[in-house]
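pasting for ref
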Amino acid sequence: MIAVIDYDAGNLKSVSKALQFLGEDVCVTRDPREILGADKVILPGVGAFGDAMERLSQYGLVPVIREAAAKGLPFLGICLGLQLLFERSEESPGVEGLGILKGEILRIPGGEGLKVPHIGWNSLELSGDGKLFSHLPAQPYVYFVHSYYLRAADPSIVKASAQYGVQIHASVEKDNVFACQFHPEKSGETGLRILKNFTKMGEES
């Protein structure tokens, strides 16, 4: 069973529908027992960093998420869910992120012909060993909606990057923790393949 963490995030339904389309057993929940008892966990998200951390704290989910990641469950953050896994964001100065991964979230600078938020399809540059991108072409197209981007402290965890006036760390993997700045649930066949790859994590062991 895959637990999709419910903290009132806007893309809960689209993520759970995509997983159900793939034939997965999905539970949308904020119950700590269900989250920690799941086979895999997904933290979705759209919206503001500070508001999201406040809701996670309000629902008592911060220690639950940290425990789920620490116990080795395959864990996937999507969009804002990626950002929350890191230490801090320029969007909400003074607000601590989950700190499961090292790095910070910065505002996209924009520039000539570049609108912020960044909305639309972009190709990814893959590092070659990202488990989420197995069986995908070298430069897959995926769908982004964001105004802030990740700069990971450790470049070795970055498995996909995108260019939008700046290099965006678009996907990271460290041990059992995976995350995408883009929306796989809105990225067509490519996104479904990425989600399918995630659902297979841990099965090989």
